[in-house]
Amino acid sequence: MESEVKKLNPIYFDEATEEILSSLEKTRCEFWNLDRDCANFLNTLIKINNSKNVLEIGTSNGYSGIWILKALKETKGKLTTIEFWEKRQSVARNNFKICAPDVEVEPRIGSAKIVLEDILDDINKGKREKFDFVFIDANKKEYIEYFELVDKMLEDKGIILADNILSHYEKVQDYTVALFNNKNYQSQILELGTGMMLSRKA
Ligand SMILES: C[S@@+](CC[C@H](N)C(=O)[O-])C[C@H]1O[C@@H](n2cnc3c(N)ncnc32)[C@H](O)[C@@H]1O
Fold it and tell me: Which pairing describes strands 196-201 and 185-190: parallel, antiparallel, or unpaired?
C-alpha cells in the first residue's frame, strides 16, 4: 500500500533522490533539517508562487535545498544558499548534484550577515537580480538582522518563509513583531513543524 501511495504521489521523487532524502531523514535532529511535511510545504509554495530566484539562509546538509531544487526544476529557477560550515555545505553540494543535477545552485560559504551584505552590494550595483522567495533557517537570534537585509533584496510580492517560529519563540520574537508591524508585509504564523512564519511583501 505504502509503495502504491509513493508511486502515485507527486511528492515522492526518483529512486536516487528518495534514497538520499531517507538517509538524511534518519539524522535530521543532528542537522536540524525540516521534517518532510514542512519540506513539502516549502516545495509547494515555491511552485504556487512560480518563484524563480530563491535564497536560503541555512543550508546544512542540503535536505531543504533538495526540496527547493525540485520545485525550481519546474519553475526553471535558481537557488542561492548560505552556510557557514564548509563541511556541511560540501555534503549539500554533493546531494544537490545527485538529486537535481540540472538545476542551478550558488552555494555561498560564510556568516549569513556578511554574505547577505555582499549579495546586496551586487544587487545595488546591478550585478544580480533581486530574489522572489527567501527561506530563513539559520541563527534564530539573527532573524531580525537577516530581515533588515533581505527586505532590501526581495522583489515586491516576494515571499519570506521563516522556520522555528514557535520552537524558538523568544529568540525570534523581535522578527515576528517586526514583520507583524510592518505595513509592507502580510504575515501569518503556521503551526507546521516547529512553527513557520509566512510573509508576503505587499
Ligand atoms: C536549522 S539548520 C538548516 C537546516 C536546513 N535548512 C534543512 O532544513 O535542511 C541551520 C544551519 O544554519 C547554519 N548557520 C547557523 N548560523 C549561521 C550563520 N550565522 N551564518 C551561516 N550559517 C549559519 C548552521 O550551521 C546550520 O547548518
Answer: antiparallel
